[in-house]
Specification:
123 residues, mainly beta, Thrombin, subunit H, 14% helix, globular
């Protein structure tokens, strides 16, 4: 079965903070990112359907400054990745705080263009 995706995945490692219910932060890494979500690499598993509040420090290509972007994601699937020795957690974006969505989209578009010479085609 061929996978149908609205946007390409870009393999990239970003440090991501996951806000826990006790207000502590657990840090994980991305395996890949896309417009619709990201895959996280974590030593801890999550349950399908869990809602997580995350943040990433990414370059805002309009201001050329790093900013912290907060988002809410829903865990879509998890699998243990033996080659990475951790869980790979697929999460879809539910919403972003403030102008986080537009900052994230610009960042993703710049990464896609620098690697493949094409733009996302989103405004």
């Amino acid at each position: 079965m061929q996978e149908r995706r609205a946007s390409p995945r870009i393999k990239i490692r970003h440090k991501v903070g996951v806000m826990l219910s006790d207000e502590s932060v657990h840090y994980v890494w991305t395996y890949d990112i896309s417009l619709g979500g990201l895959q996280l690499l974590s030593e801890y598993n999550a349950d399908t359907g869990d809602m997580l509040r995350i943040f990433l420090n990414i370059l805002d290509v309009e201001t050329d400054e790093y900013v912290r972007v907060f988002a809410r994601v829903r865990v879509a699937h998890t699998v243990y990745d033996g080659s990475e020795h951790c869980f790979r957690i697929g999460a879809e974006f539910i919403d972003f705080e403030g102008d986080g969505r537009s900052i994230y989209n610009r960042h993703l578009d710049a990464r896609l263009y620098s690697r493949y010479g094409q733009h996302l085609g989103v405004g």
